[in-house]
């Protein structure tokens, strides 16, 4: 979120409170807006587009790392170990999220940039079939061989709703800046898809056959629309760009490496096997023989500041062309022996050679400078490390006595004495404010495995006053995550083996959360095949030794002790509960910006006939709606972002409970989107000159805020805060 957006949103929050606090805070906001307008002379609207974190992530395939570099200092700041050595990493980043695909293993990892911890993983097919796209806060996972597109949760990578299938392999899939997904299949059909939050599926907006398109066709997305390059059939066309372009050109054999994104007026693509770069410049298609420029095998090009940068495989350089295909400057030489890759981020072009210690930054004016990528002195961060527990702030000190007259609401002569709270005694697991602590001694062990399922046992220490526990596990298996509810201190998890290599060499992240308390997370690696689960140990307690004492004469008194009373305690059976993790929720519907969602359900027989109570729970915010266990529909409150929804069943006697399988739903911020599709600003080349009116936007925003505040003040005698007229 840009600075301007943050200020405007903060202003809305202040005005929404009403009362005297709004007036004082609004005055402070006035100062902030004026200072922002002065400090950023180009105006708030432009600042909202151009302000970013200023940092870029680059891949180091040889080490299996991603490195965060600071262009200003030219030095690396963070190293994350994502995979093993000799990886094939592809990086996607947007709005606080970093997603890395390792094509060698097919594993997709999402990193929360606020903590640098892995928040989710997903297994995809190894090789070139997989692709990850980010747009409008959504993550799309593509399997080109299977011909499918999935909408994945941006935090956990678990599927949301139903995937789309082309019914045949896909040649390429991209997403434009509006969030519209474009896909071309092997049969040459071009599809435009839009995700529907209400229906939780992709809606096909258009579909058209393109004669000449086929398995090697490539797509290039733009601000809106797409360019199709079917060079094996000699066809080039644009769709959804607002301009009509459909031309035939010379047929070229071999794979097409198209730019990842570009303006619609200048679209480059390389054909390495032919030593050619094709430029779609305006309405013309220009063929450039790069072999004559000392670039026999061109790599994937990029457009930067109306120039085309072409990396040369095996030559250690990047060739610079203009829109007509002619040289537009000196070649940019690169370090290392690998093939240079182009990364466009934050208004700069990065030239990264995987494995090299140095890279190159191309600034907006075309000048180049060196940037350090590899630094042995910089420690490597493990994204699977244990998170640092948050320590609650201590309460403010309480005065023993408040002098008379210090509080405006106290009558004269009345003294208020604060009584200190009683001491709280805790057990071995600490509690905070009367809430349970977090489990200790969490362990994971292999129980059994076969070709289809791997079963593990999760155990932990009891937490005082906890009424139950939630166990969740995530990893590179099909589905990505699963969970269970337990009332004791252990449970079994069954993990599917089909569709992934998880059961051979995967890693499982397990979290155990005490009800109303904290969570403990551990990681466990699947042992090699053939490993025998630990044997069950039976401990036999020897019978007590009976000691007979004979009293010597002359005492002849014999005392016979009565036999001990044998007490038999019968443990009552556990309370009846339906199956945990069952698929109860079918769909979640509601407008994209709606804060009330409709949860549609089809409870299985054991859920529908459960003799306890049930409720629908928004686990993200802790909101719930009581329902009959056989209910098929209800509503639940949601808030901005991803909301995780479950159906929770409680035992008839209370205490223990189980959750159904979860489904997620999104709420878009209407303050940022309004009635139009949300736009996530992308750093892009821009003119250094700002519009004359942009600098006064801060004053206009301030006037709007003060006007709303005055209306609030005028309505002070009307409805109370929170009511509507």
UniProtKB/TrEMBL annotation:
InterPro entries linked to this entry: 6-blade_b-propeller_TolB-like
Segments of this protein annotated with the region Disordered: 374-444, 523-578
Top-level division of the source organism's lineage: Bacteria
Comp. bias (Low complexity): 411-432
Stored SUPFAM superfamilies: Calcium-dependent phosphotriesterase, YWTD domain
Ranges annotated as biased composition (Pro residues): 530-577
Protein name per its UniProtKB record: Fibronectin type-III domain-containing protein
